[in-house]
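Data availability (excerpt). The following record was deposited with the supplementary files.
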Amino acid sequence: MEQQFKDYGKGEYLGSGADMAHHTYAAYKVEGEIHIVYESGHVVTKNIQAIKDNMDIHFWTPFVEWV
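Predicted structure:
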């Protein structure tokens, strides 16, 4: 999976996984944010501190796994 997303080229590769809808993604840490890059090319970002401050609202998201 890492090879598949290596062209993203931002930040530190954290790993890969799948969300609750079974969409596969790769996770990267980029300057205080977690970037989730789906195999479709869609990128979703969240601030790490915002996730830590309110883990409950991010509990069912892929972000919690990488904080």
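Summary of structural features: Residues 18 and 24 are 4 Å apart (CA to CA).
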